[in-house]
Design brief:
It is elongated and about 65 Å long. It has two domains: 146 residues, Jelly Rolls; 58 residues, Winged helix-like DNA-binding domain superfamily/Winged helix DNA-binding domain (Arc Repressor Mutant, subunit A, Orthogonal Bundle), CATH 1.10.10.10. Helices cover 43% and strands 26% of the residues. A hairpin with a 2-residue loop joins β8 and β9. It is α+β, with helices and mostly antiparallel strands. α3 packs across α4 and α6 crosses α7. The N and C termini lie far apart (47 Å). GO terms for molecular function: DNA binding. Keywords: DNA-binding, Transcription, Transcription regulation. It comes from Campylobacter hyointestinalis subsp. hyointestinalis. Pfam families: HTH_Crp_2.
Length: 213
C-alpha cells in the first residue's frame, strides 16, 4: 500500500487525465513503491517487466551494452516517467535497454495489466505514452549521433559540466567511460591531459572542476 505522500504524488501525475473515481481508486490500490540502492540493476532484458514507472527520488540510468562497453541512453530524474523499459506498455517495440539505480532510487510502479487497461480506456494516456516514447527515441538518436560524430574530448567536457555539483563529480573513470560509451583508458588519458592544462584536479573517485572549464 502506498504511503499517503506517494498517493498524492501519483494522483497529481494523473490529474490531467481526468480519471473516474473508481479508476483512481484502482490506481492507488494496485500501484507499488520500490527502493533500490545505488548501482543496483533493475532491468536486464525484455523478459523483465515493471510496467509504467515514475521516478520518485534518485536517478534511473538507461543504457545499452555490447562487448564489455556501455553507453548511457537516458537518465531519468525525480518526477520523470519511463515507458521505454517495457514493451507491455506500448504497441511499439523497444530496445534491449538495461536500467540501473543511481543515488538510492525510489520508483512508483503501475503494474502492466492495470496500465494497459488505462491506455485502452483513456486516449489521453495513450497519446501521452506515444509522446514519451517519441521524445525518448529522439534523445537516444541524438546521443548515438554524438557518440559517432562528436570528439570524445568534447563529449567528456559537456558530461563533466552537466554532472558537476558544486564543481565536483564523484564518479570513477570507469563510470564516466560507461556513460560515454568509451574505454576507461581513453577517459583517463583525456582527464590527465585536462589536469595538466589546469582545467581540473583528479582525486580518488572524485574530479574537481576549475574555472578554466
Amino acid at each position: 500500500m502506498l504511503s499517503k505522500e506517494n498517493q498524492e504524488f501519483l494522483l497529481n501525475k494523473f490529474t490531467r487525465f481526468n480519471l473516474l473515481d473508481d479508476d483512481a481508486k484502482t490506481l492507488i490500490n494496485s500501484t507499488i513503491c520500490l527502493k533500490f540502492n545505488d548501482k543496483n540493476l533493475l532491468y536486464k532484458d525484455k523478459s523483465s517487466c515493471y510496467g509504467f514507472v515514475i521516478v520518485k527520488s534518485g536517478k534511473l540510468r538507461g543504457f545499452i551494452s555490447d562487448s564489455g562497453k556501455e553507453i548511457t541512453i537516458f537518465t531519468l530524474h525525480s518526477g520523470d516517467e519511463c515507458v521505454i523499459c517495457s514493451t507491455c506498455t506500448s504497441n511499439l517495440s523497444s530496445f534491449d535497454i538495461a536500467l540501473e539505480a543511481k543515488e538510492n532510487l525510489e520508483i512508483i510502479i503501475i503494474p502492466p495489466e492495470i496500465f494497459i487497461k488505462f491506455k485502452e480506456k483513456y486516449p489521453q494516456i495513450s497519446n501521452f505514452v506515444l509522446e514519451l516514447l517519441a521524445k525518448r527515441f529522439t534523445k537516444s538518436i541524438q546521443i548515438m549521433q554524438q557518440a559517432l560524430f562528436t570528439p570524445l574530448s568534447k563529449r567528456l567536457v559537456e558530461f563533466l559540466k552537466q554532472n558537476a555539483l558544486n564543481s565536483k563529480i564523484k564518479l570513477t573513470h570507469e563510470e564516466i567511460a560507461n556513460h560515454l560509451g568509451s574505454s576507461r583508458e581513453a577517459i583517463s588519458r583525456i582527464l590527465k591531459e585536462m589536469e595538466r592544462q589546469g582545467k581540473l584536479k583528479l582525486l580518488r573517485s572524485e574530479i574537481i572542476l576549475k574555472n578554466e572549464m
